[in-house]
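Recap from last week: sequence in, structure out.
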Amino acid sequence: MKNLTGAVTAMLLSCGLGKAIAEESYTLNDYGKECASLIAEAPVFNCLDLDLVPVTVNGKVPETYTPDMICDRPAMLPYPEKTDGQCAPYSRMTAYRDDDVQMVLLCRRMFIRPVDDPHFDSIEIIMHNVKSGSTCFFISKNFGEKPEGDDGSRVPPPSELSPPEGKISAEKLWATPQEVVQHGCIYCHDSDPWMRTPWSEQNGQLPADPWGFHSVDAGGPFKTWPKPKSISTRGNTCTGCHRIGSLNTCGSRDIPTFGEQPAKMLQSIGQAPHGRLGARPGTIHEAPPDPYSKWASSYPHSYWMPPGNDLPLAEWNRIYQQDVMDLQRCCDNPEADGCIVSPIQSLNEWLAEKTADEETAN
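Predicted structure tokens:
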């Protein structure tokens, strides 16, 4: 009987059903431990110890904050409609980094509360191994669905099994791997691990690794995520500074939790609207959210690529517009003439490819 059970198990694992079972049985603890092994153990942290992300209106800190207000640098991630909007103040973010690891801890505010209130509406960790390229994403179960928020006074590591008495557990706080996969992080973080937006760059904490290895190497359901590629053309000024990923950076994409989202490349140059949570395919230009202040809506602030842009618009168009159009053409059809398409890989994937190339050459 034992041999029969083993044979049946082996048969299941060799087909789609076995794969589905393996993906469903992959737990938060499994994911936390695997990411700790691939990259680093996430620390215990207090959201109130992180650095504030500023919210300004026309260059000034407002005297009061109101629901659905406009601001200079709204969060680019779409929030649920019932929240107080992308300009809700007092989100906090801090980065940790050394020669091997980059890690960002982020506690989002989607509802207006006092600055020292310990409750937050989404708690997130992104971690990245610079040498190997391994990248992991963690996000809380709550994403603006609870007006009371989650207590961020002690955020547990995802791999922690038992918290101190009276503190929230990892299992209660963090989304399961299956839920994280539905958030589709890799669609927007397709060029490299870090999404550079006016909102995320304000406190100077965001790391950079624009040309490094980048791959979600964790197992379980993460194997279902698409593998992004780098899209470029010969002599392109945009890709002279960073990659253009083939997923949501390149073009609009329907992302499981968020619905269809505009191309990040075009958002960064004022040529696509802010995204809306749950947008149906083909509706991203229908009454999109408009959380931008007059300052943010005017050129050059509406074009935040390249960073620090202060060129006259005619000069910007002369230098960059044709390159953007070339990238759009290749995003639409990567096999078109003149398009350069390269895999975005981990160190191990790159080494395996080089070894295979050498063996073929020999």
